[in-house]
């Protein structure tokens, strides 16, 4: 397979605590890979390392054939953080047009298209600071999409959104993947796992599964992905030997 992201033996230490313990994984080009795990499992740290904004102790991360954080990748990666990175004292349109101006060849029309793609056309002239939580997140997503990135890193993109909007966003993610964009989407909600092409299940800084959705189900011998996650955790726990 063509590989968009390659992580090898990655160790990250934050606050004198090792949070990623020599993990490795590959993310294929042009699909949706889900990064699933409970809060505090290391999802955001791994994503930050892929984007190139996380200091690492050892190991390597390569994106599109370049070391993570390389200048050549800046216009090729879109990153949606958990904390929406938009300006509250500007309108939605002003925010997205500002981010569009940072990319060569990206126009105001592209900015308006990104706003429409996240369902914010009716709020385009509204100050971001006055938006609801879900709208705020969508405004940030539009800013991540406007540069037409080859790789899109989305950290908990559907948190706080109603089911209808979640469905619309996932439809957009599938369209992007079909067009060749590589998406890495994190979530702690296992019902979103079934929407992905491939899953990386992470717990306490270690990858416990890295395969297609069907393969994860088969490995855990259950169709329920919540139960699959629990069974995979139990399978890795040490067995106590009676004395």
Description:
- With 243 residues, the protein is an alpha/beta fold.
- The protein has seven helices and ten strands.
- It has helices at residues 43-51, 92-101, 108-117, 133-145, 163-178, 213-220, 225-236; strands at residues 3-14, 17-28, 32-36, 58-63, 66-67, 77-80, 151-155, 182-187, 198-203, 206-212.
- Strands 6-7-8-3-9-10 form a six-stranded mixed sheet, with helices on both faces. Strands 2-1-4-5 form a four-stranded antiparallel sheet, covered by helices on one side.
- Strand 4 (58-63) and strand 5 form a beta hairpin.
- Helix 2 crosses helix 3 and helix 6 packs across helix 7 (225-236).
- The protein is globular, with a radius of gyration of 19 Å.
- The protein starts with a strand and ends in a 7-residue tail after the last helix.
């Amino acid at each position: 397979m063509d590989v968009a992201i390659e992580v090898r033996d990655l160790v990250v230490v934050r606050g004198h605590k090792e949070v990623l313990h020599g993990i490795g994984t590959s993310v294929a080009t042009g699909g949706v890979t889900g990064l699933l795990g409970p809060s505090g499992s290391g999802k955001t740290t791994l994503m930050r390392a892929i984007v190139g904004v996380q200091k690492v102790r050892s190991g390597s991360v390569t994106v599109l054939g370049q070391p993570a954080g390389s200048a050549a990748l800046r216009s090729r990666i879109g990153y949606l953080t958990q904390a929406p990175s938009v300006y509250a004292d500007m309108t939605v349109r002003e925010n997205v047009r500002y981010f569009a101006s940072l990319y060569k060849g990206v126009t105001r029309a592209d900015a308006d298209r990104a706003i429409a793609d996240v369902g914010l056309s009716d709020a385009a002239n509204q100050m971001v600071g006055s938006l609801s939580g879900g709208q705020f997140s969508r405004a940030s997503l539009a800013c991540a999409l406007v540069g037409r990135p080859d790789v899109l890193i989305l950290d908990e993109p559907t948190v706080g959104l109603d089911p209808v909007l979640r469905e619309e966003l996932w439809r957009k993610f599938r369209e992007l993947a079909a067009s060749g964009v590589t998406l890495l989407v994190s979530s702690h909600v296992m019902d979103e796992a079934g929407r992905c092409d491939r899953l990386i299940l992470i717990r306490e800084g270690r990858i416990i599964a890295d395969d297609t959705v069907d393969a994860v189900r088969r490995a855990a011998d259950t169709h329920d992905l919540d139960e699959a996650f629990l069974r995979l955790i139990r399978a890795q726990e040490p067995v106590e030997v009676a004395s």
